[in-house]
Amino acid sequence: SRRSLESRSGMSGGMRQILNLGLYDGLKRAYSLRRLNLSKMKFFHPTAEEAAAHGKVLPTLALDKARATNRKRICNTKLATAEAAAPKMDMPKSDLVMGPPQISPCLASRRFVHFFPTASESKVILGDRGNRMLRFNIVDGSRYMDTLPCLHGLKEMPMVISVPPTDVHLPDGEDTGDLYIIDGLLHPHKAEVRPQFEALVWRGFPKSAVSSRFWHCDILPLPPWISHHKHGMVFGHALVDDSICFSICGAEGAGTYCFHIATREWSKAGDWLMPFNGKADYVPELGLWFGITQDNLPCAADLSGLVRGEELSPDKMRIWERDDLPEEWQPTSLHNSCAVSLGSGRFIIVDFLDVMKFNKEWNEMDAVKEFALFTGMELAFSNGKGKNGRNGASKDNGHHSSGTDCSGNESCNCSVSGNENGGKGKGVMRGLRVIKHKSHRYMFKKQLRIEAVL
Q1: What is the pLDDT of residue 107?
Q2: How many CA within 13 A on the CB side of residue 413?
Q3: Which is nearest to 179 in space by CA: 228, 229, 134?
Q4: pLDDT-based confidence at 328, cuts 50/70/90?
Q5: Structural domain boundaries in the chain
Q6: Which long-range contacts (CB under 8 A, 24 or more apart) does 420-425 make?
Q7: Where is this region: Disordered (predicted)?
Q8: Is 90 exceeded by the pLDDT of residue 110?
Q9: Alpha-helix runs per DSSP H in 61-124
Q10: Separation CA 37–CA 20 (nearest Å)
Q11: Is 206 exposed, middle or buried (0-12, 13-18, 19+ CB in 10 A)?
Q12: CA quadruple 320, 324, 330, 333: dihedral sign
């Protein structure tokens, strides 16, 4: 039997302590996996008083403005202030170094190794352009590698949906969970000869006396509604109950589709897209999903009705403005921002930014440096009093009462419009806040660049 959505969210086992980073060294043509200890970095204010004094509540952004193609980013922070608030950080040492696979260098890609997340923060899967899959783990302080089945087809832009382990996995000590891998750049009309959606699943043989289980790689179908499409882009995905929901857009149309894990059948949610770019994580304490938009803005939405075909109405989502970034810091075109869930409504937001300076000779702004900005952010309701009687309300004045009031801890009873079940599709998302805590900058050195944050 499958676990509840709260367990499957991967947040019920306490706060996450490790952030896995995949880096590429262009000089050595080598990939490295590094583990950032979050407890040493102090991305969050430790007390409610410090959060109220030094935290910042991000301003909400009207949906019509968020969707405007000519929207200009608000910059209310000076460069010196932003740099002082985000000290530079060093990368941790490498836990694994891997050279590029020995395959044809003529392949049209600069990426030969991809880093994939799993349900366990201690395990990372690496996939190469030869469709081989390696699993890295740290066991009792020792580095451990094993192999998983190869994929059946090359993925140009692989996107991985990690499904937490069930009662089938845990008796065998498998806490990796199943992995569903879809190509972010789809060619549905070629699906019969080119597998573009696959799953690495842990199971035994059906109707067999053999009780042992092991990993299998299965080819899965794409949504039948897009089978005639020549091209499609997967923009957002989210695990909703026992289904994986994908937003797919192409020249032939757009839509959101739900893949039901148990039956391996598809249903259509509607001819619209989720607001997320990439993964949206479920926050069980709030009953909402949180992620990043195509414009690199924090976003929360109630996706609970998607599997039933309910449209994602404007009163079930919220987007926040990033007015804390100075004008000299502009998003790079090479990487989109990403959010990694730590549990209890806390996230690490990673923005990839260019440092811009004015070029007098060309009379324009030039990118002179590139860096990654790591920021601790918290999604919480603050429209009532917690069980401890302390006031959890906050105003949009840059301060927030965090800690045990509305930080996602079990002692908080804040909800959407007074509904105890959090998001669950009840009314407007009144009192929902995103609180910015602390930031650190990693300046890209020589050709050492971050390729993945897991």
Answers
A1: 56
A2: 9
A3: 134
A4: very high
A5: 5-102+110-453
A6: 421/287, 422/284, 422/285, 422/286, 422/287, 422/288, 423/286, 423/287, 423/288, 423/289, 423/302, 423/304, 423/316, 424/287, 424/302, 424/304, 425/302, 425/304, 425/305, 425/310, 425/316
A7: 386-410
A8: no
A9: 63-66, 79-85
A10: 9
A11: exposed
A12: negative
- Give residue 114's Cα distance to chain centre: 15
8 A C-beta contact, residue 160 and residue 22: no
pLDDT recorded at residue 105:
58
The rounded distance, in Å, linking the Cα atoms of 30 and 121 is 23
Using the structure block, give the residue that is written with the tokens 């109220």. 52
Nearest to 76 by CA among 298, 320, 296, 325: 325
Name the pTM for this structure.
Answer: 0.86
**Beta strand pairing call for 56-57 and 113-117:** unpaired
Is the Cα dihedral 421, 425, 430, 433 positive or negative? positive
> Exposed, middle or buried by CB within 10 Å (0-12, 13-18, 19+), for 336?
middle
317 touches 40 (CB < 8 A): no
Query: Is pLDDT larger for residue 430 or for residue 36?
Result: 36
Pair 453, 16: CB distance under 8 Å? no
How many other CB atoms are there within 10 angstroms of residue 151's CB atom? 19
Query: Which class for 398: exposed (0-12), middle (13-18), buried (19 or more C-beta within 10 A)?
Result: middle
Strands 30-37 and 94-98: antiparallel
Nearest to 320 by CA among 60, 63, 75: 60
Among candidates 101, 118, 94, which has minimal Cα distance to 33? 94
* Full DSSP string of 214-259: EEEEEE-PPPGGGTT-S-EEEEEEEEETTEEEEEEEETTEEEEEEE
> Is 61 in a helix, a strand, or coil?
strand
Q: How far apart are CA 339 and CA 347, in angstroms?
A: 6
